[in-house]
């Protein structure tokens, strides 16, 4: 399989910018993921208001809205590759700052009680280094809450196109967190979506920004080949075709002794 761990961040920005107006209507799995992450995060939040909260790769603001609904904080900072500040301003009740740039190399200017991210870190080039980087931006006992995807995500498309992201496994995330974090909660599971046709699968991916992985131009010939191969391999008894999502979650606390 062609590795896309070194995917150009500008491609990601372009794909998500194009998908921004359609994203919320089509990103149903991502929406459920934010709800699941938020539900478990509630178990580990202190009763008192937080000082500083950061969300990395906030996108259209799905998680952002839930965070601000459930958490009281003195300072909010949201980040994304795309300039989504106008969209956030329409959704969010509390005032916030916005930083447009690469979340993987976020320039920490302060330390946060909570760093959260949903459906973003799978695009990072070095997710293990990202965990280390987060230590710079977390207070002692600060929380890192992440929703991302596991190794079987979109496996049908990857099998046929031979193109896909290299998703870390849950055990890899656990290993990376083990040195300086207390893992409070983690889980992963698979969800099967069905679509009327393989073309509907491609449209769904386009509307959720995943076309950033497509580094070739579709011709009628390879599009017809994709449709035929997908129908042959992934048709369901109902006559529809399937697409697998593999959500993965963790919440970890930065160990107090880890802070120098």
Automatic annotation (TrEMBL):
Which reaction(s) does its UniProt entry say it catalyses?
malonyl-[ACP] + S-adenosyl-L-methionine = malonyl-[ACP] methyl ester + S-adenosyl-L-homocysteine
Q: Which domain of life is it from?
A: Bacteria
SUPFAM superfamilies with a match to the protein in the record:
S-adenosyl-L-methionine-dependent methyltransferases
One example of a Gene Ontology biological process annotation: methylation
**A matching Pfam family:** Methyltransf_11
Enzyme Commission code: 2.1.1.197
UniProt keyword list: Biotin biosynthesis, Methyltransferase, S-adenosyl-L-methionine, Transferase
Domain Methyltransferase type residue range list: 54-145
Tell whether S-adenosyl-L-methionine is among the UniProt keywords: yes
Under Gene Ontology molecular function, one entry of this record is:
carboxyl-O-methyltransferase activity
Where does this protein act, in terms of pathway? Cofactor biosynthesis; biotin biosynthesis
Cited HAMAP family? BioC
Q: What does this protein do?
A: Converts the free carboxyl group of a malonyl-thioester to its methyl ester by transfer of a methyl group from S-adenosyl-L-methionine (SAM). It allows to synthesize pimeloyl-ACP via the fatty acid synthetic pathway.
Q: State the family named in the UniProt similarity comment for this chain.
A: Belongs to the methyltransferase superfamily.
Q: What is this protein called?
A: Malonyl-[acyl-carrier protein] O-methyltransferase
Q: What is the lineage of its organism?
A: Bacteria, Pseudomonadati, Pseudomonadota, Betaproteobacteria, Neisseriales
